[in-house]
Design brief:
The chain is of the alpha+beta class. It has three domains: 84 residues, Roll (PH-domain like), CATH 2.30.29.30; 34 residues; 214 residues, no CATH class. The protein has 14 helices and eleven strands. A seven-stranded antiparallel β-sheet has the order 4-3-2-1-7-6-5. Strand 3 and strand 4 form a beta hairpin. Helix 2 crosses helix 3, helix 7 packs across helix 12 and helix 8 packs across helix 9. The N terminus is likely disordered. The structure holds zinc ion. The site of zinc ion (ZN) has 6 residues, from helix 7 and helix 11.
Length: 358
């Protein structure tokens, strides 16, 4: 075939018995020299000629997978190979020979297939995130040495003390009385985590939250707002429920999955500590976590003969307080456990009332 010179038979002439050879380079596996050849099919064999020539049964050849940019390669049993220069002609040759790419390759090729595969990956990841990660986080949190949790909690409290807390203004006798009352309550289940109350005056208004160290922080504003010891016991029991289930640690581990976990397992708390104060204050626990803590609190109050209406009143009072002082509520960090109640206060109150009737 001579480039530039019109074929005397013209393009519409009867088809030639053999399709045009496919341009390729042959590497014999002995030297790096490419040999320019033309590849054809003859029966069940591939053969090429040009600067080199060779013939080989098709079933002995290995064909590289087709991908958008890679050069296709045909490998001989002895390791010698062809690199195809004219992919389109090669595809036609394959088509004529009845050779079909495996469905995997064709799937990789089509963007629809790629989207499907991507969708399947995303679904698998979501399922992992939804089901496996919480399980793993729970197991990891339970396996953490107490010293790690202690150091994390202490560190967080130190940061919060420096930034937004002031020493409690409550009379020492009142603080001691609250501590003693809560300590006197029987827990709903065995395995009570170690806890201690920390009273603070705060710029975040009425609030309470629990740190991995076992510190349950109660703000003066919460004590003043509720002004009801039974209700405060309910609040503390709810926080003890969070501690019992290690909700904050699980959330930290889930949120920062790999980094946090490796750091924590290696006993390095610094990287996690940097992120934790914000997380502790923005402890927007999952609906399930809040329900678990509410259930724990309800069981504890019942066990000690305290009416659940006291805890139900907490949510109503907090909602009222937030409505009365919208500016203050807006300034508060979102979700410091009680302020942005999630599930809604109404839902929690309804659940507690239902539990109270049982
Ligand atoms: Zn909570």
């Amino acid at each position: 075939m001579t480039a530039g010179v019109p074929d005397p038979a013209g393009p519409d002439a009867a088809p030639t018995p053999a399709a045009p050879a496919v341009a390729a380079r042959y590497f014999d596996g002995l030297s790096s020299r490419p040999w320019r050849v033309g590849l054809r099919l003859r029966g069940d064999a591939a053969e090429f000629d040009g600067e080199a020539s060779r013939s080989c049964p098709l079933h002995q050849l290995r064909l590289s997978e087709r991908s958008r940019h890679a050069v296709r390669r045909v490998t001989f049993p002895d390791g010698a190979y062809l690199e195809i220069d004219d992919n389109a002609a090669f595809e036609r040759l394959l088509g004529a020979s009845g050779q079909r790419d495996s469905w995997v390759v064709r799937l990789q090729q089509s963007w629809r297939g790629a989207l499907l595969a991507l969708g399947a990956c995303v679904l698998a990841l979501l399922a992992g995130y939804q089901y496996l990660l919480p399980l793993a986080a729970g197991a990891i949190a339970a396996a953490l040495p107490p010293a790690v949790e202690r150091r994390l909690g202490d560190g967080v409290l130190a940061v919060l003390d420096a930034r937004m807390f002031a020493p409690s203004q409550l009379p020492a006798a009142r603080r001691r009385a609250l501590q003693a009352s809560f300590a006197a309550l029987a827990p709903p289940r065995p395995g009570v985590p170690p806890w201690q109350l920390q009273f603070r005056a705060s710029r975040i208004g009425p609030n309470a939250f629990a740190l991995p160290s076992g510190d349950i922080v109660l703000t003066d504003q919460m004590v003043e707002l509720l002004d009801d010891e039974a209700a405060l016991m309910g609040v503390l029991a709810h926080e003890l429920g969070h501690l019992h289930q290690r909700h904050l640690m699980r959330r930290v581990i889930q949120g920062a999955a790999l980094t946090a976990t490796t750091s924590l397992l290696l006993g390095d708390v610094s990287s996690v500590l940097a992120a934790l104060p914000a997380l502790a204050l923005d402890a927007k626990y999952s609906r399930d976590a809040e329900r678990e803590a509410d259930d724990y609190a309800a069981a504890m109050l019942r066990r000690n003969g305290i009416g659940l209406e006291h805890l139900a009143a907490v949510f109503a009072k907090l909602e009222q307080a937030a409505a009365d002082a919208p500016a203050h509520a807006a300034a508060a960090p979102p979700g410091a456990d009680y302020l942005s109640s999630h599930p809604s206060s109404a839902e929690r109150i309804a659940r507690l009332r239902a539990a109270g009737r049982r």
